[in-house]
From TrEMBL:
Gene3D superfamilies: 1.10.1660.10, Regulatory factor, effector binding domain (3.20.80.10)
UniProt keyword annotations, A-Z: DNA-binding
InterPro entries on file: DNA-bd_dom_put_sf, MerR-type_HTH_dom, MerR_fam, Reg_factor_effector_dom_sf
Keyword Transferase annotated: no
Protein name, entry field: MerR family transcriptional regulator
Originating organism: Anaerovorax odorimutans
Residue stretches making up the HTH merR-type domain: 6-75
Family matches, as PANTHER family: MULTIDRUG-EFFLUX TRANSPORTER 2 REGULATOR (PTHR30204:SF85), REDOX-CYCLING DRUG-SENSING TRANSCRIPTIONAL ACTIVATOR SOXR (PTHR30204)
Length: 273
């Protein structure tokens, strides 16, 4: 008869590259229990349990819960293994999609901050812009009279954004419709978030490609209407025609620094001769 080889909890933990606390946790959860308890009160694991630990580690890395692993180990076979791997792959693909989405947000958000830092935007500039897409949620006029209502608008925006993982930037953007700024009303009417590509959501707004007049606002977003007015006035002074919504994109905001004097917002509106 082949002699069984036993390891103490400490020896077995070292063999598996883990800790005694992890082994104790697995023991309590009923997924990997010692094979015997010595007269000295020490627990002992058999050598072959190394492979059982290896399997548990694989299943955990694949995104399975300890409860799912325990259920699988209670009656595991080839069919159950394949089914478990199928579910694991589906979870990992969803996780990968979220990670890739967050990486886009991180990269784009860093690019926005760098854009704000390197541009001296006190002068109006004209630049060609490609087509862009925004997820938008309206802000009711009365919301500005009640902070609770205003926060409710932001809450609704993020509720919509959950269904649109293509949102590629963290800071907020805003939209002032043409019918508003034509009347001299520069208050923000929509909360917006830029998308990496079009979406079938009915709240999607397309920013047309073309030449845009651009001005940077420095300071609190609450005072952005002053810079919006200045942008439109300078466009008229240059004898240019502007059309379409006025776009307000935060570059450096409360997400970056609490100091409002360091906040930078990019304003843009389409122009023609």
């Amino acid at each position: 008869m082949e002699e069984k080889i036993y390891f103490t909890s400490g020896e077995f933990a070292k063999l598996c590259g883990t800790t005694k606390e992890t082994l104790r946790h697995y023991h309590n959860k009923g997924i990997l229990s010692p094979k015997k308890e010595g007269d000295n009160g020490y627990f002992y694991y058999e050598a072959w349990q190394f492979f059982e630990f290896d399997l548990i580690s694989l299943l955990i890395y694949a995104g399975n819960s300890l409860q799912e692993i325990r259920q699988y180990l209670d009656s595991y076979n080839t069919e159950n293994f394949l089914e478990l791997m199928k579910g694991s792959k589906e979870r990992l693909l969803r996780k990968r999609e979220k990670i890739e989405s967050m990486l886009r947000v991180v990269d784009n958000s860093v690019a926005l901050v760098n854009l704000g830092l390197k541009h001296d935007g006190h002068q109006l500039t004209i630049a060609a812009c490609e087509e862009e897409y925004y997820l938008t949620v309206p802000i009711e006029e009365s919301a500005y009279e009640n902070k609770r209502n205003l926060l409710d608008a932001f809450s609704r925006f993020w509720a919509h954004s959950v269904d649109n993982p293509l949102i590629g930037e963290y800071p907020y953007s805003y939209v002032i419709p043409e019918e508003s700024h034509r009347k001299g009303d520069y208050s923000i009417k929509y909360i917006a978030g830029k998308l990496d590509e079009p979406s079938g959501n009915r709240n999607i707004h397309t920013k047309s490609a073309g030449r845009y007049a651009i001005l940077f606002h420095y300071g609190s977003i609450d005072e952005v209407h002053v810079s919006c007015r200045r942008l439109c006035e300078e466009i008229h002074q240059l004898k240019l025609e502007h059309a379409g919504p006025l776009y307000v994109d935060e570059l450096i905001s409360n997400h970056v620094t609490p100091e409002e004097e360091d906040h930078i917002t990019k304003l843009s509106i389409r122009v023609g001769e």
